[in-house]
## 1
Amino acid sequence: MVDRRTRAMSDPLLRELDHYVVLEPAGQERILTAAETLLWLEQQLASLVEIPADLQRLQSAAERAGRLLETACELELEPGRKVQWFAVRLNPPVGLS
């Protein structure tokens, strides 16, 4: 079950991509690598007063960030204040260029 403070990813194939657009409450938009996105998610989770229920069973910040990256695309930091991330393809798939 996904915590109500997170929104599920729509397409599991997107998880295979290596870059993400991250959106922050101040309207800031950045493109990060998958590794950078995981670190960014760890920082976002560290700012929470309470970790979402579906992540609480995981012991490390890295495990929580990884699970969040695999299962969601939005995290509510506090009521009305959310961060979002979306997988993006920077290069066309092989054979389609």
## 2
Amino acid sequence: MRPRAGLAFVAPALAAAALATSVLASATIATTVNLPSKLAPEIAHARHGRVVVLLPSSIRADVPASRLYPSGGETATGYDIQLAYAPECNDGTACFFAEFQGGAVTREPGTPVALAHGITGSYRAIRCGASCGPASITWTEDGARYGVQYVLGGKASMVALADSAIKAGPR
């Protein structure tokens, strides 16, 4: 009996497909980024601003922390700290990951959400048109406006980020 020629290719093809699936699955496993550690120089620079720095303790990422690039610090009205998928992203849509702001933050129109310490925030879902804008949440605390934007953010994760920043207090 002769072996079928097609079967000789099936086993290696199945093994390759299983390996590719395994690699893809491991590439999309979420990691947790310790924000105070990752953003330490930016936080130190932002502390010179006009408002206290409120920052979540951690954020879920779809890449290792080493592949996220921090920037920002003090602004004329507070602070603006970013994390991007590429260095020198400058809030570019293609490389934007997250942004943390305090001071003159524009209140995004959105759904009112209950936050820690009885604060009401405003949540806005990811929006897409010619390109997609990240989810955002804004709130006012002690007379200052704060905001977080995040490309992987759904409502629950945005509320959790804001709550973490509020509960952690000044950094």
